[in-house]
């Protein structure tokens, strides 16, 4: 039996959908949560929850990584799956530890962000990104 390579067909509609998901989800997280934390750093230090007793500064830096830096990487399609991990961690901590009493309606923004970033982590960035992945060589 001959080993035939199955050609990889272009999937522009899937790539467009993944690009839209990356840009929209990253923008919402960045604009609503990340940017205010960076612009109002001193005030945020007095407001941030510290559920594990790490101190407000370390908690705020973890949130800035997840809500400011990682969304930029995801929007560009750089280290996308890896960049989803801090976001998922912070969102799960927020929804299950910091706000466990919230109803689905009260926490809908957080739950929707979880759906978006879990989907991106599963699917990856798609082909439309800064450094396209070459499936043939396995390199960027």
Automatic annotation (TrEMBL):
Topological category with respect to the lipid bilayer: Multi-pass membrane protein
Keywords: Cell membrane, Membrane, Transmembrane, Transmembrane helix
Membrane spanning stretches: 58-78, 85-105, 111-131
Tree of life domain: Bacteria
InterPro entries, alphabetized: DoxX (IPR032808), DoxX-like_oxidoreductase (IPR051907)
Cellular compartment(s): Cell membrane
Pfam family, one: DoxX
Family: Belongs to the DoxX family.
PANTHER family on file: INNER MEMBRANE PROTEIN YPHA-RELATED, OXIDOREDUCTASE CATD-RELATED
Name under which the protein is recorded: DoxX family protein
Protein source organism: Herbaspirillum lusitanum
